[in-house]
Amino acid sequence: MQRAVSMVSRLGLRLQALPLALGRPLSCTQTKIFGSDRVKMMESLVVGDIAELKPNQGTLSLFTNEAGGILDDLIVTNTSEGHLYVVSNAGCREKDLTLMQDKVRELQNIGGDVGLEVMDNALLALQGPTAAQVLQAGVADDLRKLPFMTSAVMEVFGVSGCRVTRCGYTGEDGVEISVPAAEAVRLATALLENPEVKLAGLAARDSLRLEAGLCLYGNDIDEHTTPVEGSLSWTLGKRRRAAMDFPGASVIVPQLKSKVQQRRVGLMCEGAPVRAHSPILSTEGTVIGAVTSGCPSPCLKKNVAMGYVPYEHSRPGTPLLVEVRRKQQVAVVSKMPFVPTNYYTLK
Are 325 and 29 in contact (CB under 8 A)? Predict the structure, then answer.
């Protein structure tokens, strides 16, 4: 059966006739980085290889500190309009803006050509197996030519100046639409005229991102976890690893070839649903870690979770215990994603 992405169904109602979901306007921080030194500026703050991005291609990356900790996760897109388009978390807005603005000023003070603009845009997420089909009715661009993690500026259902990015936080095919804030309600209303599209809440989206094994900043990753500990080594650009020229590289790069003290793992759990902060124990009953996210999986009909355990307990298939309401329950380390992702890639 095709995975339904209706946020109503994902809350347990299993309304299979509702295969799409429209998230509320996301209060993400959206910025533009201009100037010939824009890549230099961004690469001084993140772990990814921004220079290698093709026009209108984006990547997930991480702001890191000198201790190797993750300050935030973000998406950076190299637009064909001559700037970098950056989307970061609303909860880290002040921290992220201060970080970027300070770096812009630092480069400007030594003659660098770089500038930053904070965008007054909302972000609408249209997610689900037929998201592109629904959106295609309102755009002239051929969405079949827009694969995962690429974007284009287009008119969407009569609203001009929208940036449509083939991505999302659900593990399903879908788009995030950056729309001028004054037009967000109008665009959302137009999308909701299609009976397949339903409004979605954050709690339902959380079950989707957890099934897809995606991190939530502040829960699963933070300033005290490194990309390697967070199982996010794939975000480290090959060139950047060799150059060791990003914040915290002296801590992070050596971890790639060593056994880190802790590692983020997936857990398949029996019994009652497991929630954040629940203790993770060895089979002998010793506390060895903690759950960072957990919920029942609507797709698998099982309880899934993520958490941190010592390296020697991180291999898939390792039996463990979790504590829920002072009772111990069986858990097994599981590969992620728990549910296969359905991102759209050009064949």
Answer: no
164 φ, ψ to 5°? -100, 120
Cis amide leading into 298 (omega within 30):
no
Is the Cβ–Cβ distance between 212 and 337 less than 8 Å? yes
Q: Residues 271, 321: contact at Cβ < 8 Å?
A: no
Quickly list DSSP for 190-231.
HHHTSTT--EE-HHHHHHHHHHTT---BTTTB-TTS-TTTTT
* Edge-to-edge strand ranges of the sheet holding 29-34: 57-64, 70-78, 84-88, 29-34, 115-118
* Strands across the sheet containing 199-200: 151-156, 159-165, 174-180, 121-127, 21-23, 199-200
pLDDT digits (tens, 9 = 90+) for 91-126: 999 999 999 999 999 999 999 999 999 999 999 999
Cα-based distances in Å from 112 to 63, 84, 99, 105, 171: 21, 16, 17, 9, 39
pLDDT in tens, 299-345: 999 999 999 999 999 999 999 999 999 999 999 999 999 999 999 99
Alpha-carbon gap, residue 94 to 181, rounded angstroms: 19
Helix (H) or strand (E) holding 57: strand 57-64
3-state secondary structure of 95: helix
Among 46, 118, 34, smallest CA distance to 76 is for 46
Sign of the torsion formed by the C-alpha atoms of 140, 146, 148 and 151: negative
Q: Pick the closest to residue 324 from 288, 300, 294 (CA basis).
A: 294
Rounded to whole angstroms, how far apart are CA atoms 22 and 175?
10
- The amino acid that residue 306 corresponds to is M
Angle (CA) 166-167-169 rounded to 5° is: 160
The angle formed by the CA atoms of residues 286, 290 and 294, to the nearest 5 degrees, is: 130
Tokens, residue 103? 């770096």
Residue 176 is labelled as binding a ligand: yes
- Record the tokens describing residue 263, joined without a space: 């590692």
